[in-house]
Design brief:
Layout (H helix, E strand, L loop, with lengths): L1 H18 L23 E6 L4 H18 L4 E7 L12 E5 L12 E7 L6 E8 L7 H15 L27 H15 L2
């Protein structure tokens, strides 16, 4: 009888963890287990003046990718921005630009999603994407890196066998890396209540 009770309990816990995004191991969470997510759409972004012209279109394509993949207008191009503490606008939009070496402590890191969030609600407050110049070897690599970091800013963590959200995302392919069904479904779990209204 005890064996049946234990199996029944394990089955219930398994079902809760599969269908509730707060238990999803690939969703970023606050200390109190609230999913970290965007609370306002669309997400306005601007690329900094210090970003070379040839990088800008692949960055935009990486953000447009999520719009097409999720069939929602998520990222909205708000032009070019001057970067720096003197411009408070960088704290109200997704600011994208080139990062200095101080941001990239590990040599293998090519891009970073930096953000702050409200600890109670899990809502992002500020967000930035920074790129390392020497990693920007082709438009496809830039596109893939952008897709990956934008995935983090949608609330995704790293996937062990994911495609675009894999921790060491493959950036040597001759085409941008696509998101897996599991990665797309994880984003849908976070925003289903917003997008289906």
């Amino acid at each position: 009888m005890k064996g049946y009770i234990v199996r029944f309990f394990v089955l219930i816990v398994f079902n809760i963890s599969v269908f509730n995004c707060s238990f999803d191991p690939y969703i970023r969470r606050t200390e109190n287990q609230t999913p970290v997510r965007q609370c306002y759409f669309p997400i306005y972004y601007a690329i900094s003046f210090n970003t070379p012209e040839e990088y800008r279109e692949p960055i935009k394509n990486g953000l447009r990718y999520w719009n097409l993949k999720l069939q929602h207008y998520i990222f909205y191009d708000d032009g070019v921005i001057s970067w720096g503490p003197q411009n408070p606008r960088t704290d109200t939009i997704l600011a994208i630009g080139m990062g200095s070496d101080e941001y990239f402590k590990k040599d293998k890191i090519c891009a970073l999603a930096l953000y702050t969030y409200d600890k109670k609600s899990g809502c992002f407050l500020t967000s930035k994407i920074l790129f390392k110049d020497r990693c920007m070897k082709s438009p496809d690599i830039i596109n893939t890196l952008t897709r990956h970091e934008a995935g983090h800013l949608l609330g995704l963590g790293h996937f062990p066998e994911g495609n675009v959200m894999y921790k060491s995302v493959i950036t040597t392919k001759d085409h941008p890396v696509d998101a897996s069904n599991a990665e797309v479904q994880a984003v849908w779990k976070l925003y289903k209540h917003v997008w289906e209204e």
